[in-house]
Amino acid sequence: MIEPMKAKTIIKIQEWVNKLSCLLIFICIIAIVWKPIIAFADNGDTIVHVTNTGKCYHTAGCYHLRSDREMTLYEAVVENGYNPCIDCNPPIYDGPEPLHEKMEKSQSSSSSKSNNTTNSKEKTDIAEKDEEGETLFLKVIIGLMACFLGLKLIGFTKRTYKKWRIEKELFLQEQNRYMALYANKDPLSLVDIPKDSFIKDGYPCSNGNGPYGDYTVYIAKKNGKVLHVKPECGGVNLAPINYAQVYNLPHCKRCASGKKIKLPKIGWYQEYIEITRIKKKYQIP
Ligand SMILES: [Zn+2]
Ligand SMILES: [Zn+2]
């Protein structure tokens, strides 16, 4: 019998799985959108990467780097006034030169140079905005993917649970059916045992020659693939075995073929085994 307690436990587990998957999606989205800026202070010797148009400097391999120019962190920050990229967390300048003053100087000097520089600065701003837009777009895409996967996960657990419930329902129906048929009955009393046959050590037996009586057959001691009815065949000594264990092996043409050869019927034994299996599976007393 399936206890209602067990079913309740499963439902509780199901609810928890749902809650956990929601939490997981939430964490995914937070992790993607909120990227902690962990940067390392640096005296300016480290090589950083800049693009031809952007206003930021990057670590090698940052996805913003469509064009790549190398310079030291000092050159990037103090001389050229680049800002650290928010996506690849490059090192932060921590050298003796005052950072903001120099950056302001470089910015004011570059803007006072000529119209040409101002134009290129505007272009730079546009490129930077494009890059930021791209980043946001990527984040939205990744967030949506996380949502999609989360919903898939919830769907999967729901389907699994539904399947489990249907299987349980079927199990209960079968159990009721077998309960009516087999409850408190010895499987042996439910099958037609041939006269003088019985079960010994789990195998069908009868009184007679060999360890299993009429149910004794023989196979080669090593990798026997053929069933014999004589303990010695073709000058080879064979090992006795119960016929129920090897009934589907091909019969020896020398000793186990022909009309005279009569092997015992084992249908009753197979039925007995099946009833025993069902009683165990459905926990029938
Ligand atoms: Zn970057
Ligand atoms: Zn033989």
Question: Can you put this structure into words, describing what you see?
Answer:
This protein is an alpha+beta fold and 285 residues long. The chain has a domain at 202-281. The chain has 6 helices and 12 strands. It has helices spanning 4-33, 73-79, 99-113, 115-182, 243-246, 267-281; strands at 41-42, 47-50, 56-58, 69-72, 83-84, 92-93, 197-200, 203-206, 216-219, 232-233, 236-237, 239-242. The strands form 5 sheets. Strands 4-2-3-5 form a 4-stranded mixed sheet. Strands 1-6 form a two-stranded parallel sheet. A two-stranded antiparallel ribbon has the order 7-8. Strand 2 (47-50) and strand 3 form a beta hairpin. Helix 1 (4-33) runs antiparallel to helix 4 (115-182) and helix 3 packs across helix 4. The radius of gyration is 41 Å and the shape is elongated. Mean pLDDT is 83; it is low at 104-119. Bound molecules: zinc ion (2 copies). The site of one zinc ion has 6 residues, from loops. Residues 99-127 are annotated as: Disordered. The chain crosses the membrane at residues 20-41, 136-155. Keywords: Membrane, Transmembrane, Transmembrane helix. Residues 106-119 have a biased composition (Low complexity).
